[in-house]
Amino acid sequence: MEEDANQFPKKELLDNVPIVEDERDELEAPEFQVEFLPPAAEKGADSGGRRPGNADADPSGKKTAAPARFQACGLRRTLGRLETLQEEKELLVQKTRGELRACRQRIELIAKQQASVAAEVAAGREANNTASVGRLQAVSRHLCTELDDERALQSQLRAALLKSESAMWHIAIQKGQLEDVQASAQEEEAAARKGLRAHTSEQLHREEEALKKAERNRLLRVRKAMHLQKEHGLRHQKLVEDAKKNHKIAVKFLKASLGRIREQEREKEMGSQEHMKRRMDAVLALKNSISANRETLRKFQAWGQARAELAERKARAQKEMILAQGGDAFRHLFHQRQRQELEAQNRAFGEQQRLRKQEIVGRILREEAAGETRRKRRSSPTKATGRLTLRDETWGYVSDVCEDRALNFSPQQQDSEAVSPPRASQLLEAISYESVQGDSGNITWEHDTLAEPEIPGLWKEDYKPNQVPKEEVDRKPVGGTKMDRDILARTMEQLRSRVTHRQVASGHEFKGRPFNSKPKLIHFKDFDVGKVYKKKITLINATYTINHCKLVGVEEHLRDFVHVDFDPPGPMSAGMSCEVLVTFKPMINKDLEGSVSFLAQTGGFSVPLKCSTKKCMLSLDKELIDFGSYVVGETASRIVTLTNIGGLGTKFKFLRASESCEMDVSQSVAKTSSLFTYEDKGIYGKITTSFSEQKIEGKESPPIDMTSQKESGKLDGKKQEEGRPAEGVTMSTVMTVPPNEEQTEISLGEVAEGEIGPFGSIKVPVIFTPIIPGAVYTKFKVVFKNQQCPTLYFRVTGVAIDVPVWVPKPSVDLKICMYDRLYQDSILVHTRSKAALRLKFEVCKELRGHMELLPETGYIQAQSSYTVQLKFLPRHSLPEDAGKYFDKESRVLEAPMTIRVADQIKPVGFTVHAVVTTSDLELSPSAVDFGHCTVYEAVRTQVSLCNLSLLPQGFGFVGLPKFVDVQPSDGFGTILPLETLQLDVIFQPTKAKEYNFELVCKSEINRCFKLSCRAVGVRPPLGLSHYQVKFAATSLYHTSVATLYVINSHVSMSSLTHSAPRVGSEDVSPVGPTTFEFLPPPDSPITISPLVGTVLPGKRCLVQVAFRPVLPTKLILQEALQTLTKEAEVKSPCKDTVTQRKDLRRQSSTLRLQGQDHPPRASTTQAAKLQKLDLKPSSDEYQAAQATLARSFQGRFDKFVVPCVVASGDTEDRKGTEPLSFSPHNTLYLELWCPAVAPSLVVTSDKGKTIFNFGDIAVGHRGIKKVSIQNISPEDLTVEFSVLNPSGPFILLTPIGKLPAGETQVLTLSFSPRESILARETLDIITKRDTLSLTLVGTGVASTITCSIEGDVLDMGYVIAGESVSSSFKLQNSSALPIRFSMQLDSLSSSRRGKSQQRLPQFLAFPAQRTEVVGTQNHSGQSVFSVIPVEGVIDPGKTQDFTVTFSPDHESRYFSDRLQVVLFGKKLSHQILLKGAAREHMMFVEGGDPLDVPVESLTVIPTCDPEHREGVFSEPGPLSPEAEELKPILVTLDYVQLDTDVPAPPATRELQVGCIRTTQLSPKKTVEFSLDGAASLQHEGFTVEPSRGFVERGQTKTISISWLPPADFDLDHPLVVSALLQLKGDVKETYKVFFVAQVVSGP
């Protein structure tokens, strides 16, 4: 209640004023627009005065007017707030003063009570009443306490009163300050308005001047326009005069040109008539020839049929004879058929041989003709003079055929035909002749197209071709052989391809019809034979660019009647047109159809052509004439119209259907309709022709073709079904009917027969003269002379009555009527009487309480009508009152009404029909109990509204309470007859109480139907901040999160401060911690965190709801099962499929029998397969099926209602076994709208999987994977990527920035492991719609290989120079990935050559400095070592065998090389040293100290040269001849002398003597060795074992040498001894072994 006196400082009131634009109308006058004050005015207002002249001096001052006005608005608002605050303070002061007065009164009252209590205490003490005194003392203490409280309250009220009064004073001061500011602001506003008026007047002056200037400009433009128009008129008049002169000149020349054209057309017409006459004669001759050929064909058919019957009879007799003899007829027939086939093969072989002979003869003839052509080609070809055209020669040939000059049969052939039946070759000749005659356009005239014959010898008179026997020469088939037809087809295709070509314009190829025809169809209607008809069509170029058009011609069967005149216009641009004149001169009365063909640059096209003969198309406008009711003696007439819409007239005759007529049916064609098509006429014409030919032949019945028999049988069957006679020869048919009594009431007029012309109509009157009362029916027919026109029928009906009064509507239908509703209708009564009549209207007595006729009596004038009013008001007692007139089941009322006419015994009756129904609406159920419902939700209950009526009714629920709603359409609508509507009654309480109410439903006739309702309103102790959460459209496998709060607003038991939570009228829920628990539906994509929680009073708890749509696991497994099934079907071979089909066919009978007992188990089998299909989410099949379904996902919308139960208490205070009691009535409900959509980005590669496994990659290598992603959303997406681990092995090589809609981009990912590790990272592709996560998995594997060579040295041993030896070793891959290897020799390395050029030769370096591993190489340049395979791949855990071949070409002991094993082209795995030695002979000695360098020198130094031999080895004396061949071997022995008394072991060395295995032939198979001087060596302390021996091929023997110093050994001088070692093999070699021994001290 306290306020700070300084809470409204002046600066805050003036500066922090809100801007309000709605108050502008209060600040400015209505006649002015909003303008801003100049800055000078604002400055003047701040200083207390301003100068009016500054308003116009600064034009930019308008910008400061708006803030000033807004500041004024803020001042007024602040003043208003201060006034409101002042009123509140005054009210507070008054209230405080009233409380202070009441406090003072209570203090005075307490003081009086204390005085009275003190007096009573004194009196009690005097009376020694201890109990009373004690009680009074307690009262006195209580009064003292109350007095102290009241005084304290009084002091507080005084202090509050002082503060409130002080605040009021400060408010008054601030109000005064603001009033001064407002006054100054009003003065500034007035000055601004004055300046605005001045500015407006100046602007108005400028606008008036601009308007005057614009008017002057307009007048100038008008004058200029009039001048231009006058000049244009003069120019136009001159042009008109020039055009008239030119027109006169053009008309003159046009008349002359038309005269010349008409003359040319007359000459051309005369020529065409003569040409057509010749054609008609040729056609008639061709027809006669066809008839003769047809007769020949019929004879051949009869002969073939007779021969087949004879063969069948013979086979049947032979079979019976074999069966009678007890033989196997089937085997006999089988052997006979085999013999026939063998004979046929022999005949075919003979025919083939004959054709080969004929081909050889033809080739010889062609070669001779070619030689003759080459000889005569030197001479110039003779010119063809006077040559006829192809058409003239064709007509000449046809005329020869007509005169029987083309066919000349030899007498021998005629005699053979008379004796033996005709042969197939003769039939072939006849058919070929007929085909040639029928299609002359297919004949190729070579001499018409070639100026010089290709084979000139064939046309000479003295040419005599080689005679070939007639039995070996066969006639060439019709149309040529198959090879000729193929050659012709290829030639035509080449010609067409050369003529036509593609047309491409602007990158688009034209496809379609190159020219459009206008009109599209050339139709000659109703033509007459002999006349000439012409039609002109226009061809329009429909291509993109220039095109050409050429006339090809008309079809073959139209060439005799149709002529096309077309002058090719040359190149035609797109859209240009040309004209074509089509002339049709019919010679036969027959419908024709075909087309006119053209050839354009882009292809051929055709224009359809149709010629229609004149036809009769007759029809009647009526099939039924109903005269209605007429009195006996009257006469009525109706008109029936016969119309002919065809171009051919005919005679007609109207007859009764019962009358007979004689018709000429010479053509005997079944007449089913008056419209005949060309196809129908063709069929009937063929059949008629065949029957006419049979009649000409003398009514014989030769055998005919089976096809014609079937067709004739079908036609006969159709005719028998239609009840018409079959076709046959010309005959007369008389149709008669039994005689009946002629009905003279209905007759025809005078025009009953005559002739109807083309496109005409005839009107025939039909007269009805009733004689006898009753109904009259007559059927008429119209017959025609033209047999193609069917007979037309029509019926005539009428009713004759003898009563003058009648009702036009004898049955009055009131439709459907409701009870207690009034229905009216008018009944019209007519009279034919010539006198007035009195009428009395009666209603049957059962219905007089429900129906009446007004008036009951009336007079009808002569030959007029009378109207009676019918009123029908059905009561609910109608079913009982009406009796037999009312059907209770169908609710149909049939009420007979009677009209009685004076002086007439027979009354006139009519019937009133009506269906009477109720108007009740039924609500089900009649009472609704909504149960308990919280104030935060709505309860919906369905109610059925049934319409028991047969009429639709409108309804509406009226007077609904605020807490009730009825849907749909707010409880209003129309219900159809006998329809039941489901209505939703929605109840949402506003308070926690018990509800009892009624809902009223009114129908459109104001009937009320009530529905009783009751419910209990509940206010839970907890509430939700949102009861409905609408998630955004979320992609599959993405998450959307929504946040809401659970609020506990129950802080007090008082119901005055807030709405207390309770259930209905029960007690208020206790105040304290309240627990909630969400119960989400199982298997739903909803996650709520936390599910359970406790909320303290006045607090709230944050709850997060996450929606993550996923595809059902079962659906994914089904898709995976289908995919696996399809793959298995594709992989299974065709042989298995055939076997399964056979097994299925065998089991089909069993399955049919068991199908009734065992139902199909498709669903069970599929469920079992799904159970067996145990796929993990990480499997490839599962991910592929998931990606397929996600790509085809069409979207889904789900609604979930999650209940939240509420209980009082805290879960932490309860024991684990003591659950909280959740009330079912206090349950909250959270509605979630969850739309799921397909992801905007999908992976299209690798079956849509999002987990990419690089597999095992060797450390230091890189694996690449390409991922295709597609944007399947309708908009372009900006793509961003998450950051991968910079130190990780995964790298995105090709990121993209934008992905258009529908397009696919490829991402390149690399995996480069630096160590042996299993790596896994996630790459997020982020768009504004969703995020696509790609999981990258890879394993870094260290590549390890083990070699089978120990020490990495491979010694190939000794080999004969020029031979080779091989050795093998193995490399094993002990890693988990395939390893690609390559084998490299240092001797073949290019880098070695470069390094060797920069170094000194190895034989010049010291032994310690020699690092070169490549030793002696072959002189031929080929590598001395080779290895296979050189490269390849070793699978995990596998072993690769390698073969090393040593092939030296000269002798040396220092062949060496290094073999390097390189993995993946970069990693060096092993280095293997290859060594070998070569000898010229089969023996070798190995061991001793080296005396030469390992690299060969440029020169060879003899070992026995005295100048190069060291002196230590030389001995005095002459050299023997063999000394030059001695080879030195140095063996050094070091005896180690120990300091101990233990004797030291002797010094030992070894020499190896070997025999090389060779493929060369040698007399000796072993090597013999011997060491001379063993005794002298032994004297010096040397021991040599063995000194002699033999060595087998491929073996070595060791010579062990040991030395012990003798007693007289001088330690200062080493011992030097030599001995000769001789080797005998294929040659003899001698080695001089130098033994050098010395004693060295031990360690």
What does this entry look like structurally?
Helix 6 crosses helix 7. The radius of gyration is 65 Å and the shape is flat. Helices cover 31% and strands 32% of the residues. The protein contains 21 helices and 79 strands. Strand 78 and strand 79 form a beta hairpin. It starts with 9 loop residues before the first helix and ends with a strand. The strands form 19 sheets. Strands 23, 25, 27, 29, 30 and 31 form a six-stranded mixed sheet that branches. Strands 33, 35, 37, 39, 40 and 45 form a six-stranded mixed sheet that branches. The longest helix is centred in the first third of the chain and has 195 residues. The chain is of the alpha+beta class and 1643 residues long. The N terminus is likely disordered.
Features:
1643 residues, disordered N terminus, 79 strands, 6-stranded mixed beta sheet, 21 helices, alpha+beta
Quick summary:
With 1643 residues, this protein is α+β, with helices and mostly antiparallel strands.
Strand content: 25-35%
Question: What is the CA-atom radius of gyration, in angstroms?
Answer: 65 Å
Uncertain regions spanning at least 5 consecutive residues = 1-63, 380-387, 401-476, 663-742, 1147-1164, 1394-1398, 1497-1524
For the biggest sheet, the summary is:
6 strands, mixed
Would you tell me the structural class of the helices and strands?
alpha+beta
Mean pLDDT across all amino acids:
77
Cα end-to-end separation: 114 Å
Report helical residue fraction. Answer: 25-40%
Task: Give me the count of strands.
Answer: 79
Question: Which term fits the overall shape?
Answer: flat
Number of helical stretches of at least 4 residues = 21
